Predict the 3D structure of the following.
Amino acid sequence: MKSLQAHIFAFLKIVMIGSTVAEDSLVLDLRSYSVEKDKTTQESVSWKPKNTALIICDMWDDHWCKSASRRVAEMAPALNTTVREARKKGIFIIHAPSSVVSFYDKTPQRKLARQAPFSKSRVELADSPRWGTAWCWPDPKYEGVLPIDDSDMGCSCTGEKCEIREAWTRQIKLIDIEEGDALTDNGQETFNLLSERKIDNVILCGVHLNMCVLGRPFAIRQMVKLGKNVALMRDMTDTMYNPERPPGVDHFTGTDLVVKHVEKYWCPSFTSSDISGKEPFTFEEDKRNP
Ligand SMILES: [Zn+2]
């Protein structure tokens, strides 16, 4: 009997040591742009995975722009690998496929989000009924104008431009939704989930950086205004940017300019390598680094 107890203690010790290692294993190399110093700065931070959430923004099954849709499908497997590693580390995963959440109505992930106890935020959320838009608009108090012109909605296809239509019905199937994950596109539900778990650190990824990843009520502007430590996973995002519009750079340089805008005015960024241990993701079409 004594020997069995000894075995159990030995086992528990291994499990406890294992979980301690896992808990301390999120080290992020955060890149910011310092306006004062007029240069990019790097800082290594250690976040506790259990106090960290990763929010996947609008990785839909389809998009009205064929190029945008193709890029989401190309990025999704790499993102899924990263999300899997994040989950393993104990990071809380929130899937946020805006406007198609009802597709998941009966799932445990929706239930988790709906049932999180109400938590009052210190700033009014962007989806408060008073605003009516569920959008955190650009705020001149915080940021300059976007460095790319997306006023044409940013179809990057060459030749004939895509027509805007209702294209998405759910999150792309290539991203696994697992037990313990949550699913919502609602700012209040997101805030409730974070409060319930005492989560102060929020990682944003998904599409599109110049629009939803900044503006949604669960996304960068809102999370910064709520006082969270926010970081953008910069190789797991894309923009709606048509290279024929100002500043007339290629699509991927356009995305980099928006990343820099985020680093300057909103939050630092890092690459998925810090979570996955793999090379940062790049798109096939991005011919800048042969
Ligand atoms: Zn297009």
